[in-house]
Amino acid sequence: MTDAIANILSIAGSDPSGGAGIQADLKTFAARRTYGMAVLTALTAQNTQGVSGVHPVPPAFVAAQIADVFSDVRVDAVKIGMIASAQIAEAVASALSPHRRVPVVLDPVMVAKGGASLLAREAVEALTGRLLPLATVLTPNLPEAAALLGEPEATDRAGMEDQARRLRALGPKAVLLKGGHLPGSESPDVLATAEGAFWFEGVRILTRNTHGTGCSLSSAIAAELGKGRGLADAVAAAKGFIAGAVRHSDRLAVGSGHGPLHHFHALWD
Q1: Cβ distance 180 to 144 under 8 Å?
Q2: How many CB atoms sit inside 10 A of residue 228's CB?
Q3: Residue 71 and residue 41: Cα distance in Å, rounded?
Q4: Would 135 disulfide with which of 14, 30, 172, 186, CB 3.0-4.6 Å?
């Protein structure tokens, strides 16, 4: 890529409250100094307290959105978030298959913060079989990793590393398994690659403002990959950005449930 600003595409669902999904992705892309684009897979009715409805976009129209972007714009990286159905997973996989050289960050959005299911059961198989092999890095949290593997959640670092390695065997080039659901004051993540497992440490920040954390992390990784960073450096930069966005989230007053991150904490006075 030249010195031009990187173009990053998000393929995900919409959050009308602005904290997660496409809205969080576009804020993250801008905050990481990249140009953001968005393909909608679903509309949701939600706020900081939870999701009350999901309206999937027709799969053919999802594919048409992707095709039109790639036919006109240089895409430097792709982030995939909410898929919603097996048919949409198939459409996304088919549309991206001709573009295998573009880095893909796959965030398997399965359950919202409030507990609502965002991925139909039959879609899990399609996601695993069709989208995982396209991923440069898969970024599940502990419940998502357990659901993809069909087993209980990991409860310690050894279990996390084992699950990350086995998820990688399903097709993605790398897996970043996020440890935010572990008990205790630490929030470690493990990156499993062909070269081995690498740990990224983190201190748990006590706040309710965590809506869209996973969406924003995967988007930040995509932005950094699109700018040409290596994977480990991209993950480190993204984690630093998210930590700051969570730490400064109390400067926002949005909703009465799980509030959003402050994506522009480093840019706004």
Answers
A1: no
A2: 13
A3: 19
A4: 172
pLDDT at 116: 55
Task: Identify whether 155 is a catalytic site residue.
Answer: no
pLDDT at position 109 is 83
Structural domain includes residue 261: no
With respect to residue 238, please indicate whether it lies within any of the assigned structural domains: yes
**210 catalytic per annotation:** yes
Q: How far apart are CA 27 and CA 68, in angstroms?
A: 22
Q: Report, as an integer, the average pLDDT of 172-181.
A: 91
Question: What's the CATH code of the domain at 103?
Answer: 3.40.1190.20
Is 214 annotated as catalytic? yes
CB atoms < 10 A from the CB of 248, how many? 17
pTM: 0.94
| Number of domain units in the chain | 1
Q: Residue 57: pLDDT above 80?
A: yes
Between 198 and 2, residue with greater pLDDT: 198
Say whether 193 is catalytic.
no
Cα–Cα distance measured from residue 81 to residue 257, given in angstroms and rounded to the nearest whole number: 22
- Is 128 tagged catalytic? no
Catalytic, out of 13, 19, 212, 259: 212
CA torsion through residues 72, 93, 37, 52, sign: positive
Q: What average pLDDT does the chain have? A: 92
Query: Could you tell me if residue 266 is inside a domain?
Result: no
State pLDDT tens for residues 187-201. 899 999 999 999 998
- Report yes or no on 268 lying in a domain: no
Residue-range definition of the domain harbouring residue 169:
7-251
d(CA 37, CA 69): 8
